[in-house]
Amino acid sequence: EPRRKAAFGSVGRRIPYRILHLIDQDGESLGNMHRAEALKLMDQRDLKLVLLHENTDPPVYRLMTGQQLHEEQLKRAEKKKASPKPGVVQKELSFSSAIAKNDLETKIKQIAQWIEKKYHVKVTIRQAK
Length: 129
Description:
The protein is of the alpha/beta class.
């Protein structure tokens, strides 16, 4: 049973799979090979070996330069940051029906920002006296 996948980029030399599918740094497939061959290739080209897809048979690894690895880590961090948290966040906004035009425009901008962040927005309008 292979060990659980560590954080992206921390593969190093610990590869729990005997046979893996290898992709080179330019994105070309090198085919299936034994982990020893993949490690030898990694050392020869002075690259890092990174797990891309664990759930395939055989798992897919890619040879990457330090720069490519850093860029991929930044992309994944940005994607994770942009994705909403588990569970639905609901925002509620209430205002009077006699609201001034400028105040209404400000609240509309706030609602638009919340919708962009994939929040559920509930608007309540109170009747003016």
